[in-house]
Design a protein that fits this description.
Length: 227
């Protein structure tokens, strides 16, 4: 695919449960190009969060190959795990924006300083950081600390951190799950606007069928999960 950012082939993952190996994902395949979006759907426990963790290197697959931003990850190659760990860390710092279900903010820093720190680690300018908070409707809370704002406001700040690194790929795990319908729609609008403006690719794990319908592709893990 022209301008391909993400390709996955034959991805599988199991977890230990006592003396057994419980398969969570098997034979996952997907391709995503610049400016495209993919919704990961399925019931709780179908592997949505696990797949996102695999796509950013926070977990390692049992089988399969992942190619992201021009780098190919296949742990079956000699000496691969250590080299891959370094490559994944660099990708997460500079090119992949990850939004977790719970906002991952530094409690000792203000919302604005959290965004500035994230931009700095990615080698991006901090000048636009206040504007990202403004775009997400929490500019007036820039000097407050995470424990001084609501869960929804913390989630918006976490999104601002992702936007500030100007990623080529965003992986979002239920990014609007803690928000009311109106706020969720506003945050989703910003996610898709950033995708349109920057050409980044977007992968969303979501139970929200309206949000999933806005994506170019949908992958229902309930239909691909191992029996």
């Amino acid at each position: 695919m022209h301008n391909e950012l993400l390709r996955v082939r034959g991805l599988a993952k199991s977890f230990d449960s006592g003396t057994e190996q419980v398969p969570v994902l098997s034979g996952i395949a997907l391709t995503l190009g610049r400016g495209e979006s993919l919704a990961l759907m399925g019931r709780s426990g179908s592997g949505k969060s696990t797949l996102l963790n695999l796509l950013c290197g926070l977990e390692q697959p049992d089988a399969g190959v992942i190619s992201v931003c021009g780098d190919t990850f296949d742990d079956r190659q000699p000496g691969a795990p250590d080299a891959h760990a370094r490559s994944w860390a660099d990708l997460r710092r500079r090119r992949i924006g990850v939004v977790f279900q719970d906002a991952n903010l530094m409690p000792a820093l203000s919302l604005l300083d959290n965004v500035r720190l994230r931009a700095s680690l990615a080698g991006q300018s901090q000048a636009d950081c206040p504007a990202w908070l403004d775009r997400l409707g929490i500019g007036e809370l820039a000097d407050r600390y995470p424990d001084q704002v609501s869960g929804g406001q913390r989630q918006r700040a976490a999104l601002a951190m992702v936007f500030a690194i100007k990623p080529v790929l965003i992986l979002a795990d239920e990014p609007t799950g803690s928000l009311d319908r109106h706020t969720a729609d506003e945050v989703a609008d910003e996610l898709f606007r950033l995708r349109s403006d920057s050409g980044c690719a977007l992968v969303l794990a979501t139970h929200d069928t309206e949000l999933a319908a806005r994506c170019d592709q949908r992958l229902d893990l309930a239909h691909t999960a191992p029996a």
